[in-house]
């Protein structure tokens, strides 16, 4: 009887641990001190965006000509297709994922997953009213993207975005400026 109670207790602890792990994979928060775009509308955000700049990380290492294409799924989630040219391996690479809102559907706080239950923060912190250019912060200061509907961005917008990133504590010397030559 004692052995059965020990096994039952161990099973309950294991289930609670797995449940907590899965929940933590899905829970994403907007970082402290960061304000996301209010009155955000998902439909105008859909379509293809060109990556202008980013902090490099393992999944985008050695990529140029990077685009992110968003489309609405029937269930309300967003299909995400990130594509870039790996200039070291001399081939195109693509990652497919999904995004959902963290909380309110009219705020630019989303979470994105490319790997099963694992989500990362995607926070739209600045955007032009015409949805032409956007500044995105991740859930930590290790992730930042400047996106545009065009392969280049106007200098005044670039400066505004860089000032906002610097004010938020981002190390701008880490920015990789994406080439679009293919």
Automatic annotation (TrEMBL):
Keyword flag Nuclease: no
Gene3D superfamilies linked: 2.40.128.20
Highest taxon in the source lineage: Bacteria
Membrane disposition: Lipid-anchor
GO biological process annotation, one example: response to stress
UniProt xrefs under SUPFAM superfamilies: Lipocalins
Family: Belongs to the calycin superfamily. Lipocalin family.
Protein name: Outer membrane lipoprotein Blc
